[in-house]
Amino acid sequence: MSLNKYKILAQKPVPEPRSLWYHWPVAIAVLPFFGVVAAFGIAPDTVPEPVELQHVVEDIALPAVPAPSPEETRYWREERIQRGDTVASVLARLNVNDADALAYLLQAKDVRSLYQLIPGRTIRVVTAGDGSLESLSYLNSDGRRLHVTSGASGFSASEELPQTEQWVMQSSGQIETSLFAATDSSGIPEMVALQLAEIFSSDIDFHRDLRRGDRFSVVYEALAADGDFVGFGRVLSAEFVNQGHIFRAVFFRDDQGRNGYYTPDGRNMRKAFLRSPIEFSRVTSGFTNSRFHPVLKTWRAHKGIDYGAPVGTRVRVTADGYVKFIGRKGGYGNVAIVRHPNGYETLYAHLSGFSQGLRQGRRVAQGEILGFVGSTGLVTGPHLHYEFHVNGIHQNPMRLAMPPGPPITAQLRPIFDETTQPLLSRLDMLRNTDLARLD
Ligand SMILES: [Zn+2]
To answer: For residue 208, how far is its CA from the centre of ligand 1 (angstroms)?
Structure first.
């Protein structure tokens, strides 16, 4: 993911500095690992003038310092682990020249976690002037810091829990082709992009509603241990401007531990129905198939919405309910019909197969996977045919106002406002500093 991208970019030979412009994307990809940054995914339309570089060489007189004796000299170094690295290859880059140390690190039980080197993490060493290892430290895959030290009786190892800290990252971007193309170019990790789509999934159908020029900003957590990046966390606040409509969401957890995403005025982002039954993923995000493109004029005749998607794409139920029918049915092929409260029903047709254990009468929760896109029944290509009925009558779900989930109560409102205000201010800041917005 993004971590690999960082590494790959870092591994690339650095080109001659032709212009400032050339180095932009690299800076965007690298910066998020070092703290809070605002990255802008979309470049301004104008390409900056190349910057002429000048090299200034100056002689600076240094005060005379007595050279330390070789025995006293100690070197502190750190190296970032690359894909394919072994303990030996990293030690070589760290200029560790110590056969005993290598033998110990390759054999000792206590340092087993070194066998699983995680690309992107760092190994730090202290060596003596002759290259012999004095100490080594590494944040291992269990999230513990391994210390190896050299003593009178040879090497020994210990582990401890590192100091963890939370970083808050923020970024924004603009849709040109797909959500993932935009988040990639803004340096936003995939799991954050997926959360973004999930948070707004009751308001925006990410398969059909996205338009070129849509914009987003996102504030999210990252976790670090002793300054080493260990993983991305939750989205804390986000804004999505879809076809001119502004949607904003902020994360809130109450004192009972219940949590979710809300609008700034405390309404629940989660509605009774999801906008799309197709699970959003990197594969489906850029998928277009003009044959199944929505033609709203034919809604009345067609009585459903067709989603072009690759065979096997996961189909999820759009609201809580129970399975009313599952099996083959004429032109529908493999079809699942789900009954929801208040006389609503949804229908999912042409499936290649159903989820294991799904059967008539079973309860299903919103977002649960019903089956997979296929081309069973009367079809000319793989797609999902989705119908929405109210009291037995076909309806266009696009036109229905869906009842929302529970809002923030009046009692919780003060604490909600207090805790979410800083997260919303960050969105304001991103919006005001977004270079992409030249309008
Ligand atoms: Zn259809």
So the answer is: 15
